[in-house]
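Protein: Ribonuclease R
Species: Leisingera caerulea
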Amino acid sequence: MSRIPSKAEILDWISANPTHTSKRDIAKAFGIKGADRIDLKRILKELEAEGHLQKRKKTYRDPDQLPPVTVLQVKAPNEDGDLYGRPLEWHGEGVEPIILILPKASDPALGEGDKILAKLQGVPDQDHNYEARLIRRIGTSVKRVLGIFRAGSEGGRIVPIDKAASTEWTVAPDAAKDARDGELVEAEQAGPKGRMGLPRARIVERLGDPAAPKAVSLIAIHQHGIPDHFPDKVVAEADAAKPMGLKGREDLRDLPLVTIDPADARDHDDACFAHADDDPKNPGGHVIWVAIADVAAYVRPGSALDREARKRGNSSYFPDRVVPMLPDRLSGDLCSLHEGVPRACIAVRMQVDAEGNKLGHKFVRGLMRSAASLNYAEVQEAQDGSPNEKTAPLLEDVIKPLFAAYKALTKARAEREPLDLDLPERKIVLDDDGHVTSVAFRDRLDAHKLIEEFMILANVAAAETLIQKRSPLLFRVHEEPAPERLEALRETARAAGLNLAKGQVLQTRHLNALLNHAAGTDDAELINISTLRSMQQAYYNPENFGHFGLALRNYAHFTSPIRRYADLIVHRSLISAHGWGSDGLTEEEIERLEETATHISDTERRSMIAERDTTDRYLASYLSERVGNEFEGRISGIARFGAFVKLDETGADGLVPVRSIGREFFHFDPQAGTLTGSDTGLTLAIGQRVTVRLTQAAPVTGGLELELLALENAPMPSGGGQRGRRSPAGRTVKRKAAKSKHKTAKVKRKVERKRRK
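Structure follows.
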């Protein structure tokens, strides 16, 4: 027979679990089964009659508590920029609850007066009672736009900087706020559409010259709502922090740990050291130390620093600046492992065998002192036989042992076979004034790979330790490709004459085999891009679904708590699991892990989009002086309105509008990813080589417009495929198009068979 809970116990449960308040949820929570459910139903009826509970559909709630899903009206932002909501349904007694709105990066911008349907989560012991997540907006405030002001005789107009926005806005003379022609402004809707059918706007903020040095990243920061100003309370809290001493820590200051970073790095949050293992049971093995700045010692749960770090989720990186997750007092000073300075750290000692397999590991909370701050290039040069004054004294005892350990790890990596994509990363070089001087591809040195392998191993160790100790954490999750994306990749491979086996459990080695077969062929880039597009996006989750791309079962982010909130959560979990202090993971944080995971996954995507937009704008600025020039490239995407082309020289993406290709109608097949001309049969498909002319470059939006000159080395016909033309060049294009079309024919036939089914 089940124990029937008291009325007080039921009320406590409902208060603590506002989203699990059905009779079934309550019965499950207290283990009530069978006929005992009748007694539970009786108690709930009594509580309802006594006014302690209200029944809403099939759930119960405390009348002094807000329902888990409710309608809010958005209030004006406070001095820190935080949004709060007022519940439109409040029937409780006493002071109206305070509700903090936590928007996701993908949510629409909210403003004062908006009405939203939101999911609420109670948060005890905070300066607010609830935190709200947007479900949908049901009433809008005034719409805002970021754009370039163009002065006119009767006020002016605003040209949006967003590439996806085509509508301009009119501005009355008394709503221009003295903005100058060409100035970047933020405006809000001022009423219904005015003259010429354009919406009317009033300027609310002037943001300066969009062409000014280093203004490009500011546009992205502003456009995507990335917080770039620390509230005074956060700065004051950071400024009050003091260096940590040895008390309660293991002394690691005699270990010659070194940091290896880019030459222009301002902060150093990870250090490493390796040496040959002297354990006779591990011949040819290595000991690898990885030490990470102890950010958790300074950023305590629930503090102003913690709330701001969680809000930002991560640092955002642009060619000319970094928008950090933490103030510079921490990120650039106390939590940066500067050379020769004692710094608090959490370190892991890992033992690997001669084949790079991890035999064991141990975490410690320590105090370290970096023996040297090195950069990738000088470390690589030292290993290659050209040490400089700084690396020469470290060559034998520090640098060579690091590479020896790395060589062992490469054996384990080769056995594991993580996904091995060949997609060079672009590097935009700016001068002191913020102008682009060159666009190149970043070097991939063994020194880079060494640090990556060490960090991956440390991340695995963190995940394994916390799993073993049953301590909650956030895993870095990367799931395998969705079936439909995998099928699209398989068809792309077939069209290129390659094969991706079917009917087996997909592993990264299968994809690597495809990539290796494509290597060195004209289709190599196509297969790499298509493989990347087939991948799911990695995210954070308190449940462990593994990391497909790295071919790892257990993986968490531990190595960058300065710039990722997920890593800070892992550090706190390690502190709690080892009993290192009172600054570990709190019960409240554990309850909010799923919500935190969703939020920081969103902020990560927000930063990625902002960084990509900034790169696009810098590339457009760089290429704006070369309008009219011809470029080689490859079709990287197909849409109904045209073909996207990735230029070989810079990696920039531009659009060939379908209207510019010819006067014939082009049929868009989204399944096959093709555009096919109705008259000539000309087929455009992903992966085709093209020659294009740059016709327009818009630095403000980052847009490039291209003209198609040749497809697969066949020149386009004069007149662009006009109806009735059958010139020799046109026939050449048709023959070339037929050959190209053959590559995608199998795809189209398969799609057609599916449609018939």
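Remarks: The mean pLDDT is 85.
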